[in-house]
């Protein structure tokens, strides 16, 4: 029964105010609700699933596939699940999540021997994967610095805009990508950092920038960090792909380590969706480096306070998997090997896609496919060319021309290259 109908049956009509009855008849409580636009990334998967073609290829969502195009559960995860099964209870976690999982997770971002961890200067809570960590931070920012804004790189993962919009934090643009060179627009980026009001918040992708696959070099990160210091800006790192850029989680934390060395307070969103393949487990961490332990205790308590009315406490299973793997040397080493394996397969596919396009005699340069890193190739295909790939070849990707290299396999690469060649050389 519709909610409106239920209410009007339960309450005598005369008891309702005339305004309420005239404004909304029983059936029109939600009459003003328009269908939401499709999500630019997850909507691609929906369209892919609905396509009956046997040739269809999904290079939309950033989810790793093996060389047969199948989703992967890492061997370290399987083993952790075997160890967990039947041995532990499923009671609520504390509001801030699993202490053990957080301990191990902070080591990945801040370093195994981080003085900040030892000094208990980091306020950290388990989060609903990377998205939840970003959202919790955005809400925290709004609650405690309500007049602040955030600078967001252009382009970025589309959901960043939704997250800070829903947290009601105004957004400013940080120029990042140079379409002609298909590389970093470092000069404009530095200008925007210099021209922002002192003490601004900036969202930075720690590694494997989504969607461009373009990261600043180590030298450039040092310059960025220096300028942040001069301007007293706050860096918030979204690290959704630690391990996917170089194959080594330690190397992929370099940008964060540079900022830490330079003495910045930082915020950091970590996710195990990609690097442990725990997508649906929704397991991640939000951390904020504070001035001292007392401040960290206060900040953590407020993060928990934000989480409590939203989801009370985070889910337990993913946290158990992560802490089982990272807390055991043998399993951790297996994980590191498997992360490297995933990153290497993607790097191999980049080379192969470029070679395939060059062999087809493409007059265009495809060098950027191998220059870019991480899960995505920002191909430079126009929205119209993407539409043709979908309608004529059943190839699904986001309309910004982003190809999830994780979905490219030896089985589909020839077909994909041919189709890209076709839409970029004929109209
Ligand atoms: N941050 C960045 C930069 C991301 O690319 C993603 C996921 C996330 C955070 C959030 O990941 P969690 O699963 O919440 O940990 N981006 C993927 C996955 C699909 C999506 O849009 O959520 C993508 O394809 O861009």
Automatic annotation (TrEMBL):
List the PROSITE patterns hit by this protein, alphabetically.
AA_TRANSFER_CLASS_1 (PS00105)
Cofactor(s), by name: pyridoxal 5'-phosphate
Q: Does the keyword Nucleotide-binding apply?
A: no
Q: Which GO terms describe its biological process?
A: amino acid metabolic process
Keyword Transferase tagged: yes
EC id: 2.6.1.1
Q: Which reaction does it catalyse?
A: L-aspartate + 2-oxoglutarate = oxaloacetate + L-glutamate
Other comment = In eukaryotes there are cytoplasmic, mitochondrial and chloroplastic isozymes.
Q: Return the protein name.
A: Aspartate aminotransferase
Look up and give the organism this protein is from: Ananas comosus (Pineapple)
Q: What is the lineage of its organism?
A: Eukaryota, Viridiplantae, Streptophyta, Embryophyta, Tracheophyta
The gene is LOC109709828
């Amino acid at each position: 029964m519709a909610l409106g109908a239920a209410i009007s049956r339960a309450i005598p009509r005369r008891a309702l105010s005339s305004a309420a009855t005239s404004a909304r008849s029983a059936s029109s409580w939600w009459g003003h609700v328009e269908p939401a636009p499709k999500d630019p990334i997850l909507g691609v998967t929906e369209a892919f699933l609905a396509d009956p073609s046997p040739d269809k290829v999904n290079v939309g969502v950033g989810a790793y596939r093996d060389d047969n195009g199948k989703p992967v559960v890492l061997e370290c995860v399987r083993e952790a699940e075997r160890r967990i099964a039947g041995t532990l209870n499923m009671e609520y976690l504390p509001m801030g999540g699993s202490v053990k999982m957080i301990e191990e997770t902070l080591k990945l971002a801040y370093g195994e021997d981080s003085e900040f961890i030892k000094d208990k200067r980091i306020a950290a809570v388990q989060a609903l994967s990377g998205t939840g960590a970003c959202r919790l931070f955005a809400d925290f920012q709004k609650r405690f610095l309500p007049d602040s804004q955030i600078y967001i790189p252009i382009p970025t993962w589309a959901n960043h805009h939704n997250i800070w919009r829903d947290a009601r934090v105004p957004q400013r643009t940080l120029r990042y990508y140079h379409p002609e060179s298909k590389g970093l627009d470092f000069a404009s980026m530095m200008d925007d950092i210099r021209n922002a009001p002192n003490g601004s918040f900036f969202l930075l992708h720690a590694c494997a920038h989504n969607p461009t696959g373009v990261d600043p070099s180590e030298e450039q990160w040092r310059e960025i960090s220096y300028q942040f210091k001069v301007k007293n800006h706050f860096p918030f790192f979204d690290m959704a792909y630690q391990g996917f850029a170089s194959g080594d989680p330690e190397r992929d934390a370099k940008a964060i380590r540079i900022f830490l060395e330079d003495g910045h307070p930082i915020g950091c969103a970590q996710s195990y969706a990609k690097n442990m393949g725990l997508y649906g487990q929704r397991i991640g961490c939000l951390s904020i480096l504070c001035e001292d332990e007392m401040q960290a205790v206060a900040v953590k308590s407020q993060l928990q306070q934000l989480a409590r009315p939203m989801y009370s406490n985070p889910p337990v299973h993913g946290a158990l998997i992560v802490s089982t793997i990272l807390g055991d040397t043998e399993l951790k080493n297996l994980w590191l090997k498997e992360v490297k394996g995933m990153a290497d397969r993607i790097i191999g596919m980049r080379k192969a896609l470029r070679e395939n396009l060059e062999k087809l005699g493409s007059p265009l340069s495809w060098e950027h496919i191998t220059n870019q890193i991480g899960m995505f190739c920002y191909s430079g295909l126009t929205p119209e060319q993407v539409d043709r790939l979908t309608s004529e070849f059943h190839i699904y990707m986001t309309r910004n021309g982003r190809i999830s290299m994780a979905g490219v396999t030896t089985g589909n690469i020839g077909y994909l290259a041919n189709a890209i060649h076709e839409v970029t050389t004929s109209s």
